[in-house]
Amino acid sequence: MGTDRYAYASRLAHVSPQSKLLVMAVTTVLCLCLDCISVSVVTILAMGAATVCLGGVRLREFRRMLLVPAGFMILATLTIFIGRYDPGTEMLVGISLGTHGYGVTAASAVQGISICLRALGVVASMYFLAMNTPMTDITGVLRQLHVPELLVELMELIYRFIFVLYETMHRIHTAQTSRLGYDGLVNVYHSTGTLAAMLFVRAWQKSDRVYAALESRGGGQSVRTLAEEYESGRAVYLMCAAAAALQFAAFCMERGLAA
């Protein structure tokens, strides 16, 4: 489900998770702080190339995953692209309604594109970590960074319950579909409501069973898993340095051209 299947199949799955977390952190911070369109583009391309070439994820799959948040970002930045302007303002595209004009100016277009690309750059960096690192490895690194134990355990339990709920929902939906539960608008409403109610009940029952199991095994203490022996992350560290150098080079080139 989601990025988890890519993480376990990745060629970087057994590489030190600290190195991959460092790559994500460095590229994300630089993408946000340097605030240049060229830096955002370089971040997307560099993280995409690392995920595809080093991790072994298919380019088509990475592109498909990246298009999901891209649609939301475009919708979210429509209010930046489109604005209300005084008469006489030069617009790339627009219409006049009453005493004002509504449309897209060169400045708003640049600002909207910059925000979209910067957000996609951050998402690409996060995808590099998520599509190459299993969740258990990420939580292990968070423990080493002394993140509060309660937060780490909540992350682990919530992450596991996502899969439990998804599997339960899939089984109920399949059973409803086999009985023509989604044939017609009325049946769709009825089946969807039943699915939501049953999913809540099943989730409640499952959480009770998990809580009882944890208590019977001393649930007052932390939930620990065996640490894995990881391969050296030297190549990933070198890739991190190369990505950061490309980001700085893109920043200097854009600022130099602007000057």
Proportion of helical residues: over 70%
Average of the residue pLDDT scores? 84
Q: If strands are numbered along the chain, what order do they take across the biggest sheet?
A: 1-3-2
What letter string, H or E per element, gives the SSE order?
Answer: HHHHHEEEHHHHH
Counting DSSP E segments of at least 2 residues, the number of strands comes to 3
Main sheet record? 3 strands, antiparallel
The global form is: flat
Low-confidence stretches: none
Number of helices: 10
User: Rounded to an integer, what's the Rg over CA atoms?
Assistant: 24 Å
Protein name: Cobalt ECF transporter T component CbiQ
Main location: membrane
Keywords: Cell membrane, Membrane, Transmembrane, Transmembrane helix
Transmembrane segments: 21-54, 66-85, 105-129
What is the fold's blueprint, element by element?
Layout: H1 4-9, H2 17-34, H3 37-54, H4 59-76, H5 78-81, E1 83-85, E2 93-97, E3 100-104, H6 106-130, H7 135-144, H8 149-178, H9 185-216, H10 234-258
Helix pairs in contact: 2-6, 2-10, 3-6, 3-10, 4-6, 7-8, 8-9
3D architecture notes:
This protein is mainly α and 259 residues long. It has one domain (4-258). It is built from ten helices and three strands. The chain has helices spanning 4-9, 17-34, 37-54, 59-76, 78-81, 106-130, 135-144, 149-178, 185-216, 234-258, and strands at 83-85, 93-97, 100-104. It has a three-stranded antiparallel beta sheet with strand order 1-3-2. It is flat, with a radius of gyration of 24 Å. The chain starts with a helix and ends with a helix. 22% of the residues are buried. The mean pLDDT is 84. It is a multi-pass membrane protein. It is found in: Cell membrane. Keywords: Cell membrane, Membrane, Transmembrane, Transmembrane helix. It holds the Pfam family CbiQ. The chain crosses the membrane at residues 21-54, 66-85, 105-129.
